[in-house]
Amino acid sequence: MSRLVVVSNRVGLPSSRGGRAGGLEVALTEALQAKGGLWFGWSGQVAEATSTAPKLTTLNDITYATVDLGHSDHRPYYEGYANGALWPIFHYRLDLLRYVREEFDGYLRVNARLAAMLAPLLQPDDVIWVHDYHLIPLASELRRLGVGNRIGFFLHTPLPSPDVLVALPGHAALTEALAAYDLVGFQTRRDLHAFQSYIREEAGGEVTDDGHILAFSRVFRAGAFPIGIDTPTMETLSTEAAESEEARRLRDSLAGRSLIIGVDRLDYSKGLPHRLAAFEHLLATRPEHRGNVTLLQIAPPSRSALAQYKALRRELEQAAGRINGRFAEFDWTPIRYVGRTHRRELLAGFNRTARVGLVTPLRDGMNLVAKEYVASQNPDDPGVLVLSRFAGAAQELTGALRVNPLNMEETADALHRALIMPLAERRARWEVMMEGLRRNTVGAWVDGFLSLLRRPSDQAEQEPLPPPRPPRAAA
After folding, report:
1. 447 and 371 together in one domain
2. pTM for the structure as a whole
């Protein structure tokens, strides 16, 4: 079988990953361990100058090829266009969109440099799998260098509808760059339909019944591939973690109270201020829960150099303090706000302890935290998942209590219902969700995407087409 080459913005070397919680990093590691191959991308280090060649480290049949970014590249590429323009627009936050022409140029420049460093490492039969919004132009740059391998792309964020996407400066160039891939994957059918609508309405292209896209003088495929988790491992991990010293300490500290848990990166897409407001409303309107329930919100910082993230952290800390000041008793604090990362196994034990998992992003591509909460539960006494309808996972986890996180009263009502839900209903809801999680594992996700990527397109074979043009700066 051909070698797998995974490309992502960030490569976490095994020595630096530790036991951090799941997500893209864990999913990619599991994929490479199953297939073997090369993982290429940014090292996470910002240096005086960008690397001219990657640093190679091999462990357990995986070669890690990492590149340092110089200050003059990192700022416009990562802090600039990727997280100042793409991230907010993909999460429907037009009010936070910041576009600077030089940052878009830097985004394209870094992708070109990464392609130039990756190309010499490739073997003729490698299958290349590129991940996420940071690297949309990578395939077009590889094609410009003569790389003819099968290349797939997977977008882990949502993709907005065309009327939102067209507000992004550079949208036409980036969408054309996607045509350089043989397969473009999305988390949900909603995201896929948004892409297909853009192709028809804005690019003047065609979408065939079998999933082919005909646009920009290219033929390629697009599909929905909902990412899963390693369900059996999570079940085992949570069972063992429930007996850990930390889990016992947590249970002892609760003194018989019910636990609501939220685990999120500190990001405006996660709806954390709305979540705290809903919990406050629960306590204000349902006095029977005062002194009987605790919210543990774990929110490690991300992109902490950006102003809006600093402001969000201050807002949450102030809100938690205000709510605690309003309702706390001498022996009970309603909110425990923790702003640091915890090991994956520790979180599994905490999830198993929690009566309610609270996952309420304003918009999310999938949200593996929701799936991990469900997989961590005790089958004999499972908790209840309260889940935003705007998370991709909501389309699969039909046993959750779905809410609109913008509706404070609705979320508070769902929390109340979850806290008083009878055991028989909790079991029934959990079993429905676990059936899907055991079927759609991360292994099934990898196999489904790669099997289609490795299969040549009949239409493309019948009608050879020129390589796409590399994207250029927006006018």
Report:
1. no
2. 0.92
